[in-house]
Design a protein that fits this description.
By secondary structure, the chain is α/β, with parallel strands linked by helices. It is built from 18 helices and 14 strands. The structure holds uridine-5'-diphosphate-glucuronic acid. Uridine-5'-diphosphate-glucuronic acid (UGA) binds next to helix 9 and helix 11.
Amino acid sequence: MKVAVIGTGYVGVTTGVALAMSGPEVTGVDVDEEKIRLLQTGKSPIYEPGLDEALVDVISRGKLEFTTDHTVALLSAQIIFICVGTPSDQEGRADLRVFKDLIDQVHHLLCHDDDERILVIKSTVPVGSNDQVAELFSDCPQIHVVSNPEFLREGSALQDSLQPARIVMGASSTQAFERLEQLYKNIEAPRIKTSRLNAEMIKYASNAFLSMRISFMNELARLSDKLGTDISIIATGMGLDSRIGPEFLRAGLGYGGSCFPKDIIALLSIAEERDEPLTILYQVAKVNEQQPTWFLQKLEQRLGDLANKRIALLGLSFKPNTDDIREAPAQKLLTILREKEALITAYDPVAMPNMQRVLSGEQVTYTQTPYEAVNASDAVILCTEWGEFLELDYERVYHIMRKPLIFDGRNALPHSELGKIGFEYVGIGNQVGSLV
Ligand code: UGA
């Protein structure tokens, strides 16, 4: 069985590697020549733990290859995965231009070929889009359209693809379900076989629900600050209830990344279009937008006017184990701090080059080590809970800072130990000063 994966972003590369590891021969396709050249040498264009090693392995065993030639890859494949991005447009809707062009290209090339093929859509597209694709292909019944949304997380993408929590398949023919079952036969996970509409909605609803948990905890954290309660302990207490569960209850600077913000806005816009506004989800997005500003207000309460204050940011990626800075809270903090004329030093183990491309200038200095970043600073803000920051020599940090003030934007640092060293510790929703 031959598989073509079109689009070599996060989802495409990981899907290609995971499929090649579990059976079929896979060809990854992209229009970006530079990216394809890099992938051909076994190097991933994104930082993702374990991906480079797995790439080298499957390429050397002849299971995975990369090309910019769509025609050859499409004609030789029995299963075609569509993994192109669907970013937000100006109005917040999913921008489907690349997706639609590609679908037209596949239709044009394969509709008059008699071979049976499965067209698997992994790109996150508005509910109903895949039925429209199926409608387009109604003049070529040998091509079956399946919605097969992706649930992998950046930072553990390969692991999530090889051991998913579920495989959701949305289709309208038994052949499509059977072929996909055959493809995934080596992957153990519960299956949901349903309509394309339901499959698309499962993806949006999952991301929306997870974001809602985060915003709920972030809003409760603000109240916690006022009441003198500790949101981390409250989360532990809540999470032990099996109806709630412990995941995605960590209060912090808010969710970021290429998925939650984009998918929430897209779902809000889908609901508006149907005149069924999702009021809870609207507030979820609003709380998330406010969270970095709320945290900086706490900093201003401590330091007063931030102009010419030295602020060190630790962590720039939207979460640990990725170099992705899209919608990262650190990016919002950097922007606001610059507006307030603070002097910023910043460090991240892998995401600095990406941040430098979008935010540089006199007010921001990117450093080689976390110690250089915190040196002579008036405050440190932990934006991303990279393991490296949890293990810093905080005695040393204490001695080189100008003021021993730590703002923990992820409630991740050992606050009582920091208190013993002499730091003033401010977290999210854990009553300022109560933990030292
Ligand atoms: C998310 C979903 O978790 C995946 O299932 C989905 O496939 C993916 O979006 C997608 O749609 O492609 P990802 O964006 O990689 O994955 O990141 P998450 O691990 O979900 O984290 C998202 C954000 O929430 C991060 O900024 C993280 O710091 C934040 N977060 C997460 C919290 O603030 N608190 C938590 O308790 C958990």
